[in-house]
Amino acid sequence: MHTNIDKFVKRKAERKRKRRKYDPEYISFGFIAMQTGADLPLCVVCLQTLSNDAMKPEKLKRHLTTMHSDVDSKPKEYFERQKKLYFKQKGKLMACTTVNEKGLRVSYLVALTYE
Question: Is 89 helix (H, G, I), strand (E, B) or coil?
Answer without folding.
Answer: helix
